[in-house]
Amino acid sequence: MKTRDSYPKRAWRTTLGEGVVLLLLVPLIGCGGDAPGNPNYWTDAGTDGKAGSDSGTSGSGGSDQGSGGSGGASDGGTGGGIAGTGGGIAGSGGDTAGSGGDSAGTGGDSAGSGGDSAGAGAGAPSGFYVWWRKVTEDGSGSYTVDQEITEEDMEWKVGPTGWSGCPEGVSCTHYGINMVGFEPASGRYHFQRAVTTGSDYQKYGVYTFDEGAVEVTFEQSYSCAHPTGGPYDTTETQSFTANVDDAGLLWLQGFDGAGAGQYWIYRPVTNYDAHHRYWWYYCGGPAETCHCLCSSTDFLADWDCYL
User: Fold this and answer.
1) Would you identify the CATH topology of the domain 127-305?
2) Which distant-in-sequence residues (6+ apart) come within 8 Å of 277 by Cβ?
3) DSSP line for 101-163
4) Domain limits, CATH 2.40.160, in the chain
5) pLDDT at 179 over 90
6) Whose CB has fewer CB within 10 Å in the chain, the N or C terminal residue?
7) Higher confidence at residue 20 or residue 257?
8) How far apart are CA 228 and CA 221, in angstroms?
9) Higher pLDDT, residue 192 or 61
């Protein structure tokens, strides 16, 4: 458990590219392969073709109406969801799409009919990512947001007047902070879970990546808030799928309690923020009892500090 009076705030925002989009309909690749499209806003996604706030009912003109946008929802096209028919974020309508939309083309916000930054151009993860959303696919190409962790949720507030349930005099975040790191060149992987009070559980090892399939063999696990002084060795293994979409979002399936049809979506962060915003220099006991990575500024590079 860590105590702190304050923590510097950092704002985070995403920027979507603008431009003339292709007149091609890009299909969504399913589970276990490439990542689905970028899920920027799903809360108004339509089902069964119900019209949404930014969709046209006949596709004729209008500042935000798309051609043939008879269904879908916020940023949506024909029929709700992410990408293509059934899309809530894509389809043949959308904010900057359609024959009568804000800009040209028949696709979504950008990148054709795949939505904001959607399409089949998924790739391997690299660098650090912090958790953002847990979503469930409804079977028709739409996604429902089950949980969202905002930047504000990861701000530190001192209890009991901060986040609900935070003990008096203790700094807490709303839900905790989870982070993953991948280094393709060396095959190193790092996982961090910090609960609301800052108590952490971390582990690292080596991984392989094969068309989205990730196999991790962990080498060590440790806690900086509750140091033991070792030993740290572990033989735990883990398998899940991981793909990065065209917007840079990391889609994880079969990961951290996500069940059938569910994804954890993590967003990319800089190396600096990974070690100064979403982690911090901290040891909950005498320095000699803490793992050497507790003071590291690069988990993926300093992995051998104790081995």
Assistant:
1) Porin (2.40.160)
2) 8, 10, 269
3) SSSSSSSSSSSGGG-SS-SS--B---EEEEEEEEEEE-SSS-EEEEEE--TGGGS-EEBTTSS
4) 127-305
5) yes
6) C
7) 257
8) 11
9) 192
